[in-house]
Amino acid sequence: MRKCVATVSVSGTLTDKLDAIAAAGFDGVEIFENDLLTCPLPPEEVRRRAADLGLSIEMYQPFRDFEAMPELDLRRAEHKFRVMERLGAGLLLVCSNVSPRALDDDELAAEQLRILADRAAGHGIRVAYEALAWGRHVHDYLHSWRIVRLADHPALGVCLDSFHILSRGPDPIGVEAIPADKIFFLQLADAPILAMDVLQWSRHYRCFPGQGGFDLPGFLSHVLAAGYRGPLSLEVFNDHFRQADARRTAVDAMRSLIALEGAAHPAAAPDGFAFAELTGADLDGPRAVLAALGFTRSGTHGTEPAELWEQGRARIVLNHTGQAPALGAIGLETPDPAGSLRRAESLIAPPLPRERAPGEAPIHAVTAPDGTQVFFCRTAQPYGRREDFTPAAPPAGPITHIDHIALTQPWHHFEEAELFYRSVLRLRPQESLEVPDPYGLLRSRAMTGPAGGVRMVLNVAQVGGAGLPAQHIALACDDLRALARRLRAEHPGLLLPIPANYYDDLAARHGADPELRELGVLYDRDEDGEFLQLYTLTHGRVFIEVVQRIGGYQGYGAANAPIRLAAQRAH
Amino acid sequence: MRKCVATVSVSGTLTDKLDAIAAAGFDGVEIFENDLLTCPLPPEEVRRRAADLGLSIEMYQPFRDFEAMPELDLRRAEHKFRVMERLGAGLLLVCSNVSPRALDDDELAAEQLRILADRAAGHGIRVAYEALAWGRHVHDYLHSWRIVRLADHPALGVCLDSFHILSRGPDPIGVEAIPADKIFFLQLADAPILAMDVLQWSRHYRCFPGQGGFDLPGFLSHVLAAGYRGPLSLEVFNDHFRQADARRTAVDAMRSLIALEGAAHPAAAPDGFAFAELTGADLDGPRAVLAALGFTRSGTHGTEPAELWEQGRARIVLNHTGQAPALGAIGLETPDPAGSLRRAESLIAPPLPRERAPGEAPIHAVTAPDGTQVFFCRTAQPYGRREDFTPAAPPAGPITHIDHIALTQPWHHFEEAELFYRSVLRLRPQESLEVPDPYGLLRSRAMTGPAGGVRMVLNVAQVGGAGLPAQHIALACDDLRALARRLRAEHPGLLLPIPANYYDDLAARHGADPELRELGVLYDRDEDGEFLQLYTLTHGRVFIEVVQRIGGYQGYGAANAPIRLAAQRAH
């Protein structure tokens, strides 16, 4: 299906917007009126620019407060028709009236819209009537369809907008009652599930499909079942996107439509971590931590300044590149690395160009929006990154595998990151949490793969002030108390100190366990099981956590996160 | 009355918070539990620190989900009592239960709270019971008082929180029904009027009294009428304050309480602008604009590199100091400059230290939180800044006075700036607006003095991305069309170009007026009158607007603001 986006969805001037939208591969645009009014180019020139970029102008919007008024006002509409003719836009969006002067009279609304459509038809223009969720009398899509049916004019149809429909209720099956030739346009937007004034929700928090909590695939299936085959058009008002780079937002928008359409390459989901890579000019700190945790240096890269450290199925590469220590790459185990790469590329992930020496394994890797390199590997087969290393000592110890990876996102790219990891890696997002830090709030969302072997946590500092929180690798351990005891004895100063007051509170909540206090281990419990955690100090932008899951505990110790964040700040 | 603040209201570690709170002159604190848990110091040391800083620990909070449970759990409470004894805190806040396990049984709630209070009394501790606005069964303050009355224990009283009460309704007169000796504590918070989930509203948007939309003076008067004479304590959860400098927030907090108590020096409000001062190393641009607008250089400062430009009652000082051109100072006409200065100082505004040459007029000036210098002057008398200038040519022309001044605030200091201008200058805030800019949203709030002679607009870029918008001086003109005609003819390139598409839309809305298009003048109209606007280009961080108010128009041309912002971006 043709893919479109409203110009209001991305930042910048109208010409910047058109350039960015075209570069992301869209077929057309809706021109948001304010973008035209603020543009120094005449409509004819905007039309030419769009055509040169291969973009059709699908709709001009919005035209407000027209129908069901005590008096019919066609003067304003005639002005708009002239602008649309100059612009080459053949469809006008009329939003349901919000004026206090509007009458609750469907017959009158239909009569006035019929006259408007008739005038529009004289200019070769059609009119799409949309029920705003906060319309004064018309706020339901079936009500707008009733009025269109009453008006009964070939140039008048409805515009369906997923936000206006899904914000009022989860079941849009009534869409199937509307004949396809009367659905003139389809606008798509997702949104987080928020309990707030619907107008504010719409104007500030909309996001692209797959970034919020609405069932957009279900919604689209009803619209397709009705027979609609027109464009899929994104209309998103979002405070973050308004400030972000337009080209980046447009790519994010396109990725959301590809995923929604189910048009991505259908590779199997990754089912485990193959490795994590730390980069840095000086990696002595992380190396000492790995050695203390019982990792063994098991290989050296043939051509790169990189070492492989292993224990159980946990593999960490130390790659001497870049500046301060950071989490540079993650490797994911997948049944078909080439297929996973094709899936990522079909979702507009840039493949990683890397010079390969002869004899090195082929690379299947892309760069995520946050700069993390994502490798697809099959460690059981002679492929992937593992094989470039000359193996040495066999690994063994209490650490069994990588439990999860926590990545950090700048505050205004959280939605983009979430969609990327969700669509490319088929991870399912869990509930979003807010964690107090001494200098702000951290928003955190865990994402899990279908088989449970891939767990990731996306963290974002709420706004800019506090700087980016650190990234981390969480290692799974089968006897964390023993490990902590050994580390305390043999490596004083390696672990993050936990305040004693925490243990007083823990005793109040769960009963006293003096060993936890002595070892500096954090504890959580829920109905499914128990969780133990310890942290090493931060090196550069990265630290290592060790966790032990006891029973069926599936969480990440959220109750302990404020303690950890404050302790890290104290260092 | 004693002034307190909850540690959660400011950023940082617990010791940072205590330092900042003491430095702002508070008498005591509520210790928020999470701040203690994350603190590496034992409670005894926190107690000593607070005492050394002259701060009492008034309350420990919150204790959750205790009352009306199927089983009585005193173990957790006994732990808290021990912590409180170490901390030296004599009052525990118990919030109404939010657990789904809580029973809707006032008798049971009262019975369990009575037992809790009795145990507390054994430790010399009292218990304050508070109805959370989102409590499961108890969410009204009179309901919490009913339960306290049923429990009937001397160590049990209520805690009244203005947010929990005013978020549920505007009339708190029932407070007067509670005996003063049963109101154990008073927590104060304001909030903007938002239609959203009350828990999210409370946790993210609370602000200090005078920064939101609640009637805090009315609320306080009821509590005082009930006979309460305990501390006034601020408890504010705010996403901006969490990230701001703790010392600055604490001063802001103290200012809010001084203003709320009516303890500021009662000087008369300013009633007009005496002058505006532009600073900059190179002021040739603004000087040329002033000359083109018909201003006359009417004086030179005796000792400073400053010139006075005048026309009508509009006075602009060009002061050759600083870097890029900016709005450095505003002068306000006030009947009693020394009294106005005393008022500002009583609201913790730092007085402006400035070396005065012999014979110069005395200065009555303070620095606002945004760095703007605010002078109090009486131009009709031999006082204030005006008299330091040697007068030259007499001023005359179409510009009559300064209509308003628009100042720019960093996004995380908007509440502070609003309270400062509101309390120090007695300005009344009008509705807050959001204006789309090509790279974000601008939040804008006009404030007007009681006599109408002082109008200010506070603008803030919604978050950091787009940078600070420019400040401006808006000059009132009695024939803006004539002025624009002359400027177009004699000074091409001086005015901000306005896109032609704007005039097509204006014609659709208000009818065609070809002269406006030709002159590049912006237009607005409402039921009270008409408004004309033009803008000069921006120099450094500042530009000049000229406005003409026709009839009773009181606005600022909000509908035109997106056009102006986009046009400024285009330059």
Automatic annotation (TrEMBL), chains A, B:
One of its GO terms (biological process) is 3,4-dihydroxybenzoate biosynthetic process. Its EC number is 4.2.1.118. InterPro entries: DSD (IPR043700), Glyas_Bleomycin-R_OHBP_Dase (IPR029068), Glyas_Fos-R_dOase_dom (IPR004360), IolE/XylAMocC-like (IPR050312), VOC_core (IPR037523), Xyl_isomerase-like_sf (IPR036237), Xyl_isomerase-like_TIM-brl (IPR013022). Pathway: Aromatic compound metabolism; 3,4-dihydroxybenzoate biosynthesis. It catalyses: 3-dehydroshikimate = 3,4-dihydroxybenzoate + H2O. Residues 401-537 form the VOC domain. A divalent metal cation binds at E130, D161, Q187, E235. Its cofactor is a divalent metal cation. GO terms for molecular function: 3-dehydroshikimate dehydratase activity; isomerase activity; metal ion binding. Keywords: Isomerase, Lyase, Metal-binding, Pyruvate. Mg(2+) binds at H404, H472, E545. Catalyzes the conversion of 3-dehydroshikimate to protocatechuate (3,4-dihydroxybenzoate), a common intermediate of quinate and shikimate degradation pathways. Belongs to the bacterial two-domain DSD family. This is 3-dehydroshikimate dehydratase. It comes from Bailinhaonella thermotolerans. The lineage of its organism: Bacteria, Bacillati, Actinomycetota, Actinomycetes, Streptosporangiales.
